[in-house]
Design a protein that fits this description.
By secondary structure, this protein is α/β, with parallel strands linked by helices. The protein is built from 13 helices and 14 strands. The longest helix has 20 residues. The radius of gyration is 22 Å and the shape is globular. The two termini are about 25 Å apart. The structure holds pyridoxal-5'-phosphate (PLP). Pyridoxal-5'-phosphate (PLP) binds next to helix 3 and helix 4. Pyridoxal-5'-phosphate binds next to helix 3 and helix 4.
């Protein structure tokens, strides 16, 4: 009998009951805007910011409307202007170069290694072209953050971290998003916390925190925040920082707070699923598992494997065979942007130099989500299906 998988790769867990109850309370109050507070009330949004800052071990936190907004706000807060170049990963998702383009700046793409992290040699070669690196920890793969920060510090590069896939992850014990000048996170449905849309920005830099807060649309009500610097810092920045509204509201904050309390347990639940799939995929001829460094505590909310030097026809055949058995795989090598996958050369507003080594890696990457609604048995079944189909296509010599 041929096994098939019946689950949905885009089905997340329900919002916890406690979070639903809080959201209902917010709706009953009628006070959804973050600055709409009753006498003596801190508000869900400010409380969430204080809790997230504490969870990340950072001084300042701002909750915003989306992860992409957090990235663009970070660029504005460090003063990136039109025409400036910003280094970023060739292997990332569209909101990252999009955030750079949204401030009129120009992305300069840095290559990707077979570990699926930024190529530090290419970064060193391009470091002179920009003042800022927008570092995307794409699909949760952390570069050697000790080496990366040493390189960026030596070359005077400010680092903004895109932690859309690494909330809760660590390098050598340090939480992702806390090494650079600013860490940005998304709470969109497919990320590690789910408020539909939403995001955070964290920093220890008081001027950046103040500018980001005014940028997000604080209407000079910044004293209603709990994770921002003192009023004297706002005095320095408030007259020359524009309002580019992108606030979070109490409703989203209310459903995020109980989820944040569960983050560590959720990360462990993802990793149990990741390890089950990874174990099931090992020793499959033609397939390479991406080995994770010992210094990395990853969050396995998705898994990637490589099909090195497979041809396009063989990959298409594999994806079709897996899809027929209910397993939804994504390929990063396609010439056309499809769904969430796209390649640096499909963002035509940002001209790029060809990067043959990165192209070779991108062409080999297969990507799969691992929502927490999958059981460990589901994960083992998915791995058996992939293994069988990779073996069949590989042995047929189709590649
Ligand atoms: C989702 C995502 C973002 C942006 O998040 P949104 O909340 O959707 O704007 C940024 N970077 C990466 C890599 C992402 O996957």
């Amino acid at each position: 009998m041929t096994e098939t998988f019946e689950g949905s790769f885009t089905q997340q867990e329900p919002i916890p009951e406690e979070a639903i109850a809080r959201a209902v309370e917010v709706m009953r109050s009628g006070r959804l805007h973050r600055y709409n507070l009753a006498e003596g009330e801190a508000g869900e949004t400010a409380l969430l910011e204080a809790e997230f800052a504490e969870a990340m071990g950072m001084r300042y936190c701002l909750a915003v409307a989306s992860g992409g907004y957090a990235l663009a706000c970070a660029l504005r807060a460090v003063g990136v202007g039109p025409g400036e170049r910003v280094l970023t990963n060739a292997f990332t998702l569209a909101p990252v170069p999009g955030a750079i383009a949204s401030v009129g700046a120009v992305p300069v793409f840095v290559g990707v290694t077979e570990a699926l992290t930024i190529d530090l040699d290419d970064l060193a070669a391009k470091a002179g072209q920009a003042d800022v690196l927008m570092l995307s920890h794409m699909r949760g793969h952390l570069a050697d953050m000790d080496a990366l920060m040493a390189l960026c510090d030596a070359r005077g590069l400010k680092v903004i971290e895109d932690c859309a896939h690494t909330m809760g992850a660590r390098w050598n014990g340090r939480l992702s998003g806390t090494d650079g000048l600013i860490g940005c996170y998304s709470t969109q449905t497919y990320k590690h916390l789910n408020s539909g849309e939403g995001g955070f920005l964290v920093t220890d830099d008081e001027d950046i925190a103040a500018r980001a807060t005014v940028l997000s649309g604080s209407y000079m009500l910044y004293e209603r925040h709990l994770a921002v610097p003192g009023a004297e810092v706002f005095e320095r920045v408030k007259y020359d920082t524009p309002n580019v509204s992108g606030r979070m509201d109490h409703l989203r904050a209310a459903i995020l707070r109980p989820q944040l309390a569960q983050l560590a347990a959720r990360c462990e639940a993802w990793n149990a699923r990741y390890r089950t799939v990874e174990a099931g995929l090992r020793e499959t001829p033609g397939l390479r598992v991406v080995e994770r460094p010992a210094a990395e505590y990853y969050v396995g909310s998705s898994i990637q494997f490589l099909l090195p030097d497979w041809g396009e026809a063989a990959i298409a055949e594999l994806l079709a065979r897996c899809a027929a058995r209910g397993v939804e795989l994504k390929w990063f090598g396609g010439a056309e942007p499809v769904g969430f996958t796209s390649r640096y050369d499909s963002w035509r507003y940002a001209p790029s130099e060809p990067m043959p080594q990165s192209d070779r890696v991108l062409k080999s990457i297969i990507d799969m989500r691992l929502p927490l609604t999958f059981s460990l048995d589901d994960c083992a079944l998915i791995a058996r299906i992939i293994k069988a189909e990779v073996s069949a296509v590989f042995q047929a010599g189709l590649r």
